[in-house]
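Researcher: Last one for today. Full complex below.
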Amino acid sequence: MKTNKTKVKRTPKRGHYDAEIIYSILDKDFICQIGFVYDDYPVVIPTIYGRKGNTLYFHGASVSRLLVTMETVPVSINVTQTEGIVLARSAFHHSLNYHSVTVFGQASLVTDMDERMEALKVISDQIIPLRWDEVRLPNAKEMKATKVLKLEISEASAKIRTGPPKDEKEDYELDIWAGVLPIEKRFGKAIADPELKMDLPIPDSVKNLVNK
Amino acid sequence: MKTNKTKVKRTPKRGHYDAEIIYSILDKDFICQIGFVYDDYPVVIPTIYGRKGNTLYFHGASVSRLLVTMETVPVSINVTQTEGIVLARSAFHHSLNYHSVTVFGQASLVTDMDERMEALKVISDQIIPLRWDEVRLPNAKEMKATKVLKLEISEASAKIRTGPPKDEKEDYELDIWAGVLPIEKRFGKAIADPELKMDLPIPDSVKNLVNK
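Model: Here's the assembly. Have a good evening.
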């Protein structure tokens, strides 16, 4: 997946082009930032995705500017997870620990009805597995109001930084604390809809995700 | 700050143009995604920022492609915080709770030495306040290796979703749990650099951030 566009230019030792590494970063998330050119101007919009095999699926309102534009122009997609603040002895060597993936490509409209429904399940599973089997599935009117796009992951790269700070040799003598402050993401306690009329239990999808 | 570019097109009731709302979202974060056009192609790169007043500061290696390009072309910047998964009774009405800001503009190089140093402190404070006073500050060689850019926040918009799911009227009768699963970010236990030769205590900057 290493091409001229995806080659990591700065600190190339942080660059990775292996599909399994790229997939594993994509699978830990469901929000990406999509960049495209609109009226000669760059636009960056956050959106939800789902991955199945080498395909990324996107969905939204049929009239969404992002999706209408994405059908016609190439995009750049970035997914970034920030895992820690890296505190060095010098201001200069402060850094972040992160996993990041960038994908370049051209999305296309999914028109086949079965694939459209399958794509919506892939996106749902990306956010909260099992939920698809608990809910009322999309009806014909809702499917008509929804646009589904797909993008093959052909040009992609990952950039990763992990581990402790790296300081200048002479700075290791300084009486300055150095290390990593981890940033953790977790789920809070589920909040029932105030309109929940019956005393329904927390569903398996939520329990499964919270205990993962 | 509402212009033709920043006007929230989808679900306009989620759009906000008030500077205080935009600042408050920017101040809860330090990572943004910057989009720009490079060789006619959209590129999205995650980077760190700091806000002071109506100015966003960016920094990086002097040779960084992002920063070198940012001096010459307009950019789109997005900051998104995902705060909850919104579980509706229907698949269609599932959503996310989030705060998101998009800024459009053209960055410029900061050349004044005092402002460059001040900008680096602003960025440091954005990530971890107090740290700047604990570390070895940048020397002349490090300042030379660092490029600083600034961007005035003139065109910007925020998009916010909060609260419980909104379902179709007839779906409220279904025996399906609905509500919000909050996504929380927190700091873990600080990990000392294995090379920390003295038994230095956790510094105030880390204690302050963890206890905030």
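The first strand of chain A starts at residue 15 and ends at 16. The radius of gyration of chain A is 21 Å.
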